[in-house]
Amino acid sequence: MNAIDINSGDELRDLYRELILDHARNPRHFGKLDDATHTAEGINPLCGDKLRLFVRLDEAQIITAASFEGSGCAISVASASLLTDLIIGLSADKALECFAVVSERLTSPEPQAARDIDVNLEKLRALDGVREFPARVKCATLAWHALNSAMHGQSVPASTE
Amino acid sequence: MTRPQAQNVASIVDCRADFPALHQDVNGCPLVYLDNAASSQQPSSVIKAVAHYHSHDHANVHRGVHTLSQRATDAYEGARDKLQSFINAASRSEIVLTSGTTESINLVAQSFCRPTLAASDKIVITHMEHHSNIVPWQLVCEQTGAELVVAPMNRDGELDIETLEKLLSDDVRLLAIAHVSNALGTVNPVKDITAKAQALNIPVLLDGAQGIPHMQIDVQELGCDFYAFSGHKMFGPTGVGVLYGREALLDTMPPYQGGGDMILEVSFDGTIYNELPYKFEAGTPNISGVIGLGAAVDYLLSVGMANIAQHEEQLLKYMTDKLKQVEGMRLFGTARNKASVQSFLVDDIHPHDLGTILDHQGVAIRTGHHCAMPVMDFFGVPGTARASLALYNNCEDVDRLIEALQKARALFA
Predict the structure, then answer these.
(1) Domain count, chain A
(2) Domain extent at residue A117
(3) ipTM of the complex
(4) Residue A2 falls within a domain, yes or no?
């Protein structure tokens, strides 16, 4: 037997769950949003991942459309895809709350199990496997940092560094 | 599982026992270290030399009359002598100790080029350079108005020599070129190119960071004016490197940085600079790093550069052949003359995902742009995976790489 078979692949499977692979292969809301009201770029200088997030807010501060374009690894593309899926229909404030929850969940040593937010974040649990791969957390949070920058109208690209 | 091929290939050098870092498990698997082009592991002799210095001989160099300062100076200057002999420089004055290849190149840009560069002048580099052989020239061009000209390469990652020669016009003040490409592994025909440039009175700098660990370097035979390299890619410590420069050129250059050690006499009316090479070594140097680098030179000589080159050539062929057999494999860098490095992509798996999956199986490779973004742009990819070999790698390492890649393919299937 070689060493590879002895080593469990569970953590890898946990990182690359079916939902992640599905969103990485077929990203939702991929492309430019021509009538976006908010946009920001996210750059991971370490690995060169680069994406641009587009958001359209209506007068009531509700996100009526969102999309992204760019290139990156399976984790960063899937995370961006899941993000756009999630935030369409939310208010701007609620989307930023989601950013806070996701950041905490992926980066805090002891994330609060039940932070009180009335948005269904169940799908984002697909990203939980990232916690076991510290080098990849930045891939998973890249789009979320771009969302945060876009909603705050920052012109400087969001960076994971 | 039998590997008949593996037993006959690349058994010229067997020195794994000398490298303690290789003997560990990573993520539950024995480590396979294939990221040598980024940084190589250190043999026990280097680790011991550095520890001995710290334990017994540490003091500042070139300063004290006391015993420890003398010991530190002897060890530090002894390493310079070893480096001079290792690359066959004509004089020890030509060995400037720096923090690494990057500083060596910046030194040439700022001290050799900047004082005389005019807006009508040009510096020529190539498309396959590492960022550290691009950005220092961009900086000096911004400072002087000079133009940076880039010589092209072909799809195999070979220089277009014909076009390069046409670019060597009489307004070119320097040609700076990688001896071996870090992203593609191409060994450039630097001896021929240097001869052609110098026939036109164009000085040549060779970025030797990826050349020095893999082959015998003789700067006089190469004929180059400058040769820059780093300690940590040749089994020495980080934060130390060398600028070889021809004495006649170093003599004409002003100091790069001011400070202690680079002066003979200082007064507020003016300062008399120290002789070569100390003129370029301001401040207390990386003494332990230089001593470690000297020990690395001893180690390389004990194994033999010709043996290393032969071992790696066979192993690179073994690895390239094995990689080609992996379905969905795309190789980047397919030049006829190569050393130690193979960049690749598998299916449409992003290199970072490959890197994580391989690391999970104990296989360390580099992923990303390899500090050579123009090379990635040339091939239209955001990055690649890169396996790079050193003298301690063997066929077993390559087999483990291939198995790990198969697992990545299965995971993404």
Answers:
(1) 1
(2) 26-159
(3) 0.84
(4) no
Give the Cα separation of B194 and A149 in Å (integer): 50
The pLDDT-based confidence of B88 (bands split at 50, 70, 90) is very high
Q: Give the C-alpha distances (Å, rounded to integers) separating B349 from B211, B263, B342.
A: 30, 55, 17
- Best of A25, A47, A131, A138 to substitute, by most chain B Cβ atoms within 10 angstroms, is A47
- CB < 8 Å to B360, chain A: 7, 9, 11-12
CATH code of A56's domain: 3.90.1010.10
Residue B223 at interface with chain A, using a CB cutoff of 8 Å:
no
Token look-up 């060398």 returns B242
Q: Measure the CA–CA gap between A16 and B16, rounded to whole angstroms.
A: 34
Mean pLDDT check: name the lowest of A145-159, B16-30, B143-157.
Answer: A145-159
Judge contact between B151 and B202, C-beta under 8 A.
no
Spell out which residues of chain A touch residue B382, defining contact as CB-CB under 8 Å: 48-50, 71-72
- Show me where the domains of chain B are located: 4-30+304-412, 47-302
Please report, rounded to a whole number, the percentage of residues in chain B having pLDDT higher than 90: 90
Report, at the CATH architecture level, how domain B4-30+304-412 is classified: Alpha-Beta Complex (3.90)
Hey, what are B152's tokens?
């092209």
Sequence-ordered list of residues with C-beta below 8 angstroms from that of B114, at least 6 positions apart, any chain:
B140, B143, B144
> How far out from the chain centre does Cα B208 lie?
5
The CB-side HSE value for B59 (13 A sphere, CA atoms) comes to 16
Distance between CA atoms of residues A63 and B194, nearest Å: 61
Round to whole Å and give the CA distance between B165 and B179: 17
Which of B194 and A9 is assigned the larger pLDDT? B194
* A11 located within any domain: no
CATH ID of B47-302, from 3.40.50.620, 3.30.70.360, 3.30.70.2200, 3.40.640.10: 3.40.640.10
Mutation target vs A (from B360, B398, B407; most A CBs, 10 A cutoff) = B360
Summarize pLDDT for A16-33 with one digit per residue, the tens: 999 999 999 999 999 999
Find, in chain B, the residue whose alpha carbon is nearest to that of A46.
B368
Give yes or no: B29 in active site.
no
Alpha carbon distance, N-terminus to C-terminus of chain A? 41
Assigned domain for A59 exists: yes
Dihedrals φ, ψ of A135, to 5°?
-65, -15
